[in-house]
Amino acid sequence: MHNYIEKILRAKVYDVAEETPLDFAPTLSERLENRVYLKREDLQPVFSFKLRGAYNKMASLTADQAAHGVIAASAGNHAQGVALAAKKLGIKALIVMPKTTPEIKVKSVKARGAKIVLHGDSYDDAFAHAMELVKEKGMTFIHPYDDPDVIAGQGTVAMEILRQHNADIHAIFVPVGGGGLVAGIAAYVKFVRPEIKVIAVEPDDADCLNQALKAKQRVELPQVGLFADGVAVKKIGEEPFRIASQYVDQVITVSTDEICAAIKDIFDDTRSVAEPAGALAVAGLKKYVEQNGVTQQTLVAIDSGANINFDRLRYVAERTLVGEHREILLAVAIPEAPGSFLKFCKTLGKRGITEFNYRYFDSQMAQVFVGITSSGVEADRQQLIEQLLNEGFAVTDMTGNELAKDHIRHMVGGHAPGNLNESVYSLQFPERPGALLKFLMSLGSQWNISLFHYRNHGAAFGKVLIGLQITEADCRTFEHGLDTLNLAYQRETGNPAYRLFAGGAATPCG
């Protein structure tokens, strides 16, 4: 630890990085009954903390290494940090980025003078190609997180926090991808103020540190969620894991909806828009307060970045109400008879309705997909469901159903006209121009597609719900094809959202 403290104190970050403010969040503090502060790393020149570690590493290169130039693999924030550091130091830089990288990030890196190579569909593809180029060109690889100099550069965030707030701090919440930031913060905080809790926060579908701590060794996740793309890492870094396993007090995992709600929380207090990974720590802070019932504590969250595509905001806003527990999504069976809708609406009382979807299908019973405003208290949802059940309505809670939120709510009324012998899958594929056509062509013409719903919400990957008329044997062949294409997928034929609003009779691939 002493080595890291010395490295952090001597880190050469302030030639390019700024000492960002530690802002009090009044609205969030009042609602949570705690003193909440945001460390505003979104205000750095590249809108992310990443330039700290990148510059510190590059400033320590030998003259020979600097002369040969540097190379990095990144889909965004690290790339911008390396590019800015290279421009400042007069070093040539080559950045390998996935082909799925949004154009706004590609342009930002180019604007800072770095050369770009687009390769593969994921960070792992870009990383593998970058390592080949390192051998070929003799350039120095600047790792985004698994390097002591990078970790020390990120640790300067903690040094600033403790200098800016020398009164009591009960916990610091840190977003985790590869682990460089949490390692640097934990090493410094536990040396200077060991009573402060360091709490790591990860998406529940990309929790590589959480799984590694449980297994007591690094593990590689088979796949990761891509909503919080800045922390979509399958395996925690070796050095970050060594440090985190000693000094991180707790790991909290949060859902996509909770991240979206945190983006809104940050906006309400700062009028700035965080990227999903940037809002991760606030989401974890809120969950920590809810789970532990803490009050009157001083809590700090790292707002780690603001590199978000504008076209993703629609999706964020859509999911925010559920993330705040202020929207309840229900499938309600209503008798197909005069007066039933009126009775249903009277049962809801003065509650606000966020959406109401219905399409005539059955002469006896109507299935309604409805969104209803809530107070934000979990008991409110249970109370509403009990009210409806007591009035004789059959209710299925869809609030936590990903298929319902991603697809079904946008296609209610699309029931199959009969028994189509249909099997349904949700899957995602790399999003770039022509990607949908390429995906359909890869399926070939042997399958009869009976259902198709596609959404592009500004992320690196598009989401598809697809139904096919196939036999059980065909299911295995189809899934083998998806595996060959390296596409993440899930069987959805048995999902109640599909069954109630889009499905037909029993199918071979349930």
Overview of this structure, please?
- This protein is of the alpha/beta class and 510 residues long.
- It has four domains: 2-48 and 148-320, Rossmann fold, CATH 3.40.50; 52-141, Rossmann fold, CATH 3.40.50; 325-400, Alpha-Beta Plaits (2-Layer Sandwich); 416-501, Biosynthetic Threonine Deaminase, Domain 3 (Biosynthetic Threonine Deaminase, domain 3, 3-Layer(aba) Sandwich), CATH 3.40.1020.
- Helices cover 41% and strands 20% of the residues.
- It is built from 20 helices and 18 strands.
- The chain has helices at 2-9, 26-32, 50-59, 63-68, 77-89, 103-111, 123-137, 148-164, 180-192, 208-215, 238-247, 256-270, 280-292, 313-323, 340-348, 378-390, 402-406, 435-443, 472-484, 496-501, and strands spanning 22-24, 35-40, 70-73, 93-97, 115-118, 140-141, 171-175, 197-203, 250-254, 298-303, 327-335, 353-358, 365-373, 394-397, 422-430, 449-455, 461-469, 488-491.
- The strands form four sheets. The chain has a six-stranded mixed β-sheet, sandwiched between helices.
- α1 (2-9) crosses α8 and α3 packs across α8 (148-164).
- The longest helix has 17 residues, at 148-164.
- The N and C termini lie far apart (53 Å).
